[in-house]
Design a protein that fits this description.
heterodimer, A: alpha/beta, Rossmann fold, six-stranded mixed sheet, 15 helices, B: alpha+beta, Cytochrome-c3 Hydrogenase, chain B, three-stranded antiparallel sheet, 13 helices, 18% strand
């Protein structure tokens, strides 16, 4: 848990606990931290800083600007501290795959928690006081019966997935949250320079174009080519009159074409400079919340109200319609050859032989979670000749992931097995396809 | 009136816990507890997994030392299946383990411990942290960051990811190091050795400044557990070595760990209490980690580190019970780690593609893997069925080996502080950072 004051907002940022890997990943930014850390006014971060729990409890509600919540919710205390953080923070970031999806600890949901307690505190071979041993209860918090993702316990405003998240994603998320971007770049909106201003305005033709709220000053290439403005230069200080048309379209996003819908996420990313990489994922209308809480001098709050309303509506829509988030999978970013000279004729275990470095793992016979896993990691495992195991989370939720894997693998890859044959050769389906996400997959409730 | 002092949470450590000290009407310390309130049941949910996937799950036990939590279960499965690994894989793993040791020890010294020494024990808690150290001593801060960066990047290069690595596999390693990467790290290693020497200077100055504390506070005789290979300090390969409070050394083959290591389940902590079984509980409570390792080792594996070990032993004895000497021992281990990193980077086997035994077959069996993680002995005992599915797992995790020892030390120090008022006359230096 990290809570800190960000001087730009004259308010604060928080982090909790688990394996420390998310903190290590933040520290892995090393020299990149030098400009960032002193800019944060940290109010709670047990991993690094000495403030105690009481100091957090004593703060007024909503006193802290941003809380990073990391770790899976295994104990009752974990659940309670998450609730406390929600109370004290204006924005909550679900930080890392533990809080986003439950992580590997969620695999314990296969059993009744009492069986897990017994294994650790009564049955382990090395225990010597078996007569008296059992779950420790003096000053201990007790265990939640099942692990659930953070957003089932408290409202979450944004997610940074990964086990751990990439340092650069954390840094850019922090920079974003600190309000260093986006700054309105120009007073006038793109429409003022637009080549289609006098005739052929795309908005008037019913195509979604963000010209009315975007800063002037680009090469005008998009509209010159007949394509809409996607907001590259960020917000302008004033809006063009055509904002009314844009606002109307955004109020009724459902009726937009699917092509327009697919552009929404790109727009948000470019316009707000949201770090898209490595699963930084906004849930809900952060802009509205910031405006509501009245944090002074935020560049976001400085935007014209029309602009804030449009961006907020899009965020809310995307939160509820995740099918329009452009989600790539690990295969999209994997350098290996698909439809290679190799072909899967049976499912191999990871210890068998040694895969070559060129061909797709699946086609070489190995189980690789790439096709069902969100991109964002940069393929670190693949680079050292290890198949993906799924730590960035899934591209589609609440379905049987092993089955979905078999479906995709037998259709899109050089695989000589039928879907059922492939499935029958995976002995540990949950361990392969749900290692990081079981707790978040409603298919298993 | 009975007084209860609570510290919640203990900060600047990985994991999660609090302290509780109870003082009675007469000012006597009645109880001192170290309450660890988190556990996640890895030993349960690894059941039913492919044995070769266990090392891809368990690194999540610790994000600071995920490398030992990747390599040790791999060794345990290899032991259960009777698999030998090629020499290049052994060397790659040694290099990986030492790269982690290096960055973890530097992180511990500079980011977790140094704020206590550099600002002094009475500094404002709001400032007693690495962020403040970096802003006040930017040269030392930048050096520390460069050292951690080197170790973590080397971990990422060999392990694929520095946090939660994936490159070890039952039978060896998935890939050797690339030659150009090896050359890149070799170019930096001499600078790192200089940084380490500078760290030794800072460490020795701290010991000198705080000598009154080192020599008098928290000097608690306990047993120790570590690992040595034929008596030489080794963090990847060797036997379990117990050191008794009076300095006797007893070696155990890792397969006989249950003869040596007992686990007592306390009422007030999810982290259990480990002790030396033949001595009984609580008499046999031991400590692990770097001081336990230097107590256990007859010598270090490399020349500079061995010289440093001899210097330490000359000052505080062959077997030291000085809790504050842990920092000193940690620096000696850091020296060894960087010397070994250089040695292995210079070894042509590191880029040898023959790093994986190709014919690996599972079999029903029980395996034990042991390494020395940066915070202590790490032991995996795995049961495999004939198809290589994990049937059962017993874990003795590094930090866990220290819990009972920390509590014993806490009791000792609480008595020193509250009953003997031992802190009053202590000689403390002027803080480096004011």
């Amino acid at each position: 848990m990290l809570l800190c004051n960000a001087p730009i907002w004259q308010k604060q940022l928080v982090f909790p606990r688990n394996c420390w890997g998310c903190h290590q990943s933040l520290l892995n930014a090393h020299l990149g931290l030098l400009p960032i850390l002193p800019a944060l006014d940290i109010v709670y971060w047990p991993a690094v800083v000495d403030f105690k729990y009481d100091s957090l409890k004593a703060r007024p509600d909503g006193d802290i600007l941003v809380g990073f919540v990391e770790g899976s919710l295994r104990t009752n205390e974990d659940v309670e501290s998450a609730k406390l953080m929600r109370q004290k923070c204006q924005l909550i970031i679900s930080f890392g795959s533990c809080s986003c999806y439950g992580n590997v600890h969620g695999l314990a949901n296969i059993w009744d928690v009492q069986e897990a307690i017994n294994r650790k505190f009564k049955e382990a071979e090395s225990i010597t006081n078996k007569d008296t041993a059992g779950e420790p209860r003096a000053h201990m918090p007790g265990f939640a019966s099942k692990i659930v993702p953070l957003d089932e316990v408290i409202k979450v405003d944004a997610y940074i997935a990964g086990c751990p998240p990439k340092p650069e994603a954390i840094i850019s998320a922090v920079a974003f949250l600190l309000g260093q971007k986006p700054q309105p770049k120009a007073d006038l909106a793109f429409c003022n320079d637009c080549v289609l201003r006098e005739s052929g305005c795309l908005l008037e033709k019913g195509t979604l174009c963000f010209g009315p709220i975007t800063s002037i000053g680009c090469s005008l290439k998009c509209t010159s080519d007949g394509k809409p403005c996607v907001g590259c230069l960020g917000p302008s200080t004033t809006v063009d009159i055509r904002v009314n048309k844009l606002g109307e379209m955004v109020k009724n996003i459902d009726s937009l074409s699917s092509g327009d819908k697919k552009n929404l996420y790109e727009f948000l990313a470019l316009f707000l400079n949201v770090p898209l990489m490595a699963g930084f994922d906004l849930a809900g209308d952060i802009l509205k919340q910031i405006k509501h809480s009245g944090a002074p001098q935020t560049p976001l709050a400085d935007m014209p109200s029309d602009t804030i309303n449009i961006a907020s509506s899009i965020m809310t829509y995307l939160r509820d319609h995740r099918e329009f988030l452009e989600i790539s999978n690990v295969c999209d970013t994997c350098p290996r050859i698909i439809n290679s000279k190799s072909q899967m004729t049976r499912v191999k275990r990871d210890y068998e032989g040694l895969p070559n470095m060129e061909d797709c793992f699946i086609e070489q016979g190995y189980l690789c979670a790439g096709p069902i896993t969100k991109a964002g990691c940069g393929g670190m495992c693949i680079r050292v000749n290890s198949p993906c195991s799924g730590c960035f989370g899934q591209t589609e939720w609440n379905v049987d992931q092993a089955e979905r894997f078999a479906e995709i693998a037998t259709k899109g890859f050089n695989v000589a097995l039928s879907k059922d044959e492939l499935l029958s050769q995976i002995k540990d389906k949950i361990g392969f396809a749900e290692k990081f996400t079981l707790a978040a997959n409603k298919n298993y409730r | 009136m009975v007084k209860e002092i609570e510290v919640e949470p203990v900060t600047r450590l990985e994991g999660h816990g609090g302290l509780r000290i109870v003082i009675d009407d007469n000012g006597k310390v009645k109880d001192a507890q170290f309450n660890i309130t988190s556990t996640r049941f890895f030993e349960k949910f690894c059941e039913g997994r492919y044995c070769e996937h266990v090392p891809r799950i368990t690194p999540r036990i610790c994000g600071i030392c995920p490398i030992p939590h990747h390599l040790t279960p791999t060794k345990a499965v290899e032991d259960a299946w009777g698999i030998k690994i090629p020499e290049p894989a052994y060397k790659l793993r040694q290099l990986l383990q030492n790269a982690k040791q290096y960055s973890s020890h530097v992180l511990h010294f500079y980011a977790l411990a140094a704020p206590d020494f550099l600002l002094g024990p009475f500094a404002d808690p709001a400032l007693r942290n690495v962020v403040h150290v970096i802003s006040k001593m930017p040269d030392v801060g930048a050096m520390a960051l460069k050292m951690m960066d080197f170790g973590q990047k080397l971990c990422a290069e060999i392990g694929g990811k520095s946090v939660h690595p994936i490159s070890a596999i039952v039978g060896g390693m998935k890939k050797p190091m690339d030659e150009d990467a090896r050359d890149r790290f070799l170019k930096q290693v001499d600078e790192q050795i200089e940084f380490t020497k500078k760290t030794v200077e800072i460490g020795l100055k701290v010991v000198e400044d705080y000598w009154d504390v080192v020599a008098n506070v928290g000097v608690v005789p306990t047993y120790y557990v570590g690992m040595t290979k034929n008596g030489v300090h080794d963090i990847y390969d060797g036997d379990i070595r117990i050191v008794t409070p009076d300095g006797k050394k007893i070696d155990y083959d890792v397969h006989d760990y249950l003869d040596a290591l007992g686990e007592h389940i306390p009422e007030h902590s999810y982290a259990t209490h480990m002790y030396y079984k033949p001595a009984g509980y609580p008499e046999g409570i031991y400590r692990a980690n770097c001081l336990a390792m230097t107590n256990a080792a007859d010598k270090m594996a490399t020349p500079l580190a061995d010289e440093a070990l001899k210097a330490m032993k000359a000052k505080i004895g062959e077997v030291s019970h000085h809790t504050f000497a842990y920092h000193w021992a940690r620096i000696i281990e850091t020296v060894e780690a960087i010397e070994l990193i250089k040695k292995y980077l210079e070894d042509p086997d590191i880029v040898n593609p023959d790093c994986k035994t190709l014919d690996v077959e599972p079999r029903e069996g029980v395996g034990v893997g042991v390494t020395e993680a940066p915070r202590g002995l790490l032991l995996y005992n795995i049961w495999s069925d004939a198809e290589g599915i994990c049937k059962k797992l017993n874990l003795l995790v590094a930090t866990n080996h220290n819990i009972a020892g920390i509590e014993k030390t806490l009791m000792h120090v609480a008595k020193q502080v509250f009953e003997d008022k031992a802190l009053d006359g202590l000689k403390l230096p002027d803080p480096w950072i004011k």
